[in-house]
Amino acid sequence: MSYTDLLKNKIRGKRCALLGLGVSNTPLLELILSFDCASEITVYDKKDIDELSEEAREFEKRGVRFITGKTCFDNIRADIIFRSPGIRPDTASIPREIESGTILTSEIEELLNLSPARSFAITGSDGKTTTTTLCGKFLSSSSRVFVGGNIGTPLLDRLDEMQESDSLVLELSSFQLMRVSRSPFAVAITNLSQNHLDWHRSFEEYISAKKNAIGKDTKRVVLNADCAITRAIAEEIATERPDIELFVFSSKKNSYAEAIGTLTGAKAAFIKDGYIVLSDGKHEENILTCSEVRLPGTHNLENYMTAICLCYGFAKSEIFASVAREFGGVEHRLEFIRQLDGVDYYNSSIDSSPSRTAAALSALQGRDITVICGGYDKNLDYAPLAESIARSTVSTVVLTGATADKIHAALLSCEGTAHGQINILRASDFENALLLARESARRGGCVLLSPASASFDRFKNFAERGRYFKKLVCELD
């Protein structure tokens, strides 16, 4: 029996409900239809069917029922519910259905449950996509690799291609991790800071969702020793889960003893004499020189340390330096676009939180920076953004979008940005923001799109925002 057959048998004769017809549920629906064994398939989505993807009408012609509108989740009726990541598991009638015996699952949960491949999961507030990409490249030196989750395309329909000798590398969000019944083999939490508080009911719930990646099936965990929250998680694991192989990494400490602190039995990655070093307390191994890493900024050295710790022993050792010398980065993450009139333009549209923008500014420290900020409000505190701008070499901040007022207020309340030390400009729209940035930028400096906010006030996602920004920059003359 194939792994896909296990899923097919699970839904045979069942009423299937898909909540949200998005990136993960569209290919899942196609897969379920190909089984031709569910008794009924219903898609529940707040958007009207004409607002959904072009496939929606085609699915309807193939017998899929659509229930749409703002109250569509109030009366879900199903034996199995497949939740889209953006929909909370306690939404409307979902808890009542679970109490009555309905199974609540998701594309990513079924992938973790059914895949025979060794799974490596990366989560956290910042650095997930770059770290996930690096892990995929590292592990490809010794196994066939499938990369998915929040990066690339859903993988559930490729289950039958997977074997025990393969590696499954997943970028996982807090939304996806709210409920998972089988934990990954290896888990890395890059860092934790306030994020997605428009969706999570509290910062504590957000942290709990991230920690949910670590479960009874987890055998290796990698955590950031420089982040107070993830260090506390490391302390918990060291005390309560001696069966887990624990790694910590630090860009601020330069010895094993300093990196692990009071942790017992942990391995550590740190920077010493220009090398990323890995140590178990008895032996130190120089993994690669920091100068070999093409990506700018300390945060990218942290991404490398995270990926190295997660993959160490499962990837060929020579691959780490080889990738570092060749890998130029992921789109929308401090992505160089062009130089115009002596000014460099960078697209970092992925920066949807203050901590991401702080990392981007740090990577460009020493240069005269004109930064464009603002977008959709995730109910975040922007005081840390103002503080990071005050510590940076930013000369001008151009504000646009729904969070412009909040960011402006934070800048005016911060000692380092409140008294004219930094030029603050307000743009009427995204296009005008770039024009103001161009006018303000100084030769030898740079213009950086690093919104510190989500994109949904105008764009479908950060990728659409980033590509539009690149288009506008390339059209400048």
Give a description of the structure:
There is one protein chain. The chain has 17 helices and 20 strands. It is globular, with a radius of gyration of 23 Å. The longest helix has 14 residues, at 298-311. It has helices at 3-11, 25-35, 55-61, 94-99, 107-114, 128-139, 174-177, 203-211, 228-240, 256-260, 298-311, 319-326, 354-363, 383-391, 404-413, 430-440, 462-475; strands spanning 15-19, 40-45, 65-68, 80-83, 103-105, 118-123, 145-149, 167-171, 186-189, 220-224, 245-250, 267-272, 275-279, 284-289, 335-340, 343-347, 369-373, 394-399, 423-426, 446-449. It folds into 3 domains: 3-105, 3-Layer(aba) Sandwich (Rossmann fold), CATH 3.40.50.720; 109-326, 3-Layer(aba) Sandwich (UDP-N-acetylmuramoyl-L-alanine:D-glutamate ligase), CATH 3.40.1190; 335-475, Protein-Tyrosine Phosphatase, Chain A, CATH 3.90.190.20. It has 477 residues and is an alpha/beta fold. The termini are far apart. Strands 7-8-6-9-10-11-12-13-14 form a 9-stranded mixed β-sheet, sandwiched between helices. A 6-stranded mixed β-sheet has the order 15-16-20-17-18-19, with helices on both faces. Helix content is 34%, strand content 21%.
